[in-house]
Write a structure and sequence with these properties.
By secondary structure, the protein is α/β, with parallel strands linked by helices. It contains eleven helices and 16 strands. The protein has two domains: about 210 residues, D-Maltodextrin-Binding Protein, domain 2 (3-Layer(aba) Sandwich); about 90 residues, D-Maltodextrin-Binding Protein, domain 2 (3-Layer(aba) Sandwich).
Amino acid sequence: MSARRTRISLRGWGGVAAMAVACALTAVLALLLPLTRGAGGDGSTGVGGPGLATGVQARADNCTDPERSLKPSGDESGAAVKAIKERGYLIVGVDQNSYHWGYRDPNKKSSELEGFDIDLAHEIAQKILGDRDLIRFRAIPTNQRIPAIKHGNVDMVVRTMTISCERLKDVAFSTAYFQTGQQVLAPKTSSITGYDKSLAGKRICTAAGSTAFDRLDADRKAGTLAAGADISTTVPNQLDCLVRLQLGEVDAVVTDSALAAGQAAQDPTVELKGTPFTKEFYGVAMKRGTDDLVRRVNQVLEDFRKDGGWQDSYDAWLKDGLGAASGPPAPKYK
């Protein structure tokens, strides 16, 4: 990366009240989030307009290995990449409430977003446009990631988004840039021990449109979910689940272990329970048919892995919560 973020120390967000306020503002900020460090223009133009590439990255039918993506390329003559370069800035959908991934540190005067996903977004802007700050961020709730891409509101989403066969029906993905898995988050004093029978009769919160809810719903239908577990509580943003947990409205949260670790760092009264019970990978999501952009992003990821940028960002943001990493997941190509 051309500019590295330094590690910070954040002692929570001031308890339940401050967290609740932050979440209450999310819907408003998703619409009003300042378009940071952008070049000229109104930021209203996304990708996917007339004349863009009409090829499709992959069909989700008979999908068995969703992490396989198009081979990387540094070619920038394709319609989607040219549209970004002509506009002069990248439009990226991100989170602003996920600690160490995409968030605003309330202990800092600066309002800039920071975190692992934010570093990656800046790296993509650097490689495509030659300036890491030629980027405009749009805060997007968990359940609006796919609509934002399909409607052309953003060029891409870099927001802890799991690659899956189901999602490939709606969007295209880069190669994987992070491995995680679903895990249970609950109060330290809770009798819950993990994704097991200890969830019987417990109220569980997940984000709407998340792979966590999909897994719980599938297990409920299959009869393998703990007896009496209530999964009816879903929220637009995953952080809202932490607030519900703090307020005692639910007994547990199920989310990606990488996100849960950040929430445990924010609130010392909660902890990860058990071990991850799925294996999932984050990818950069883009509009189907923008194959040239997918290939270009895959080349950025290739360079990001090899030049130490991925490791630097991991060490700055995630190492304290997740421990040492052996490196990013190996890319898979078609």
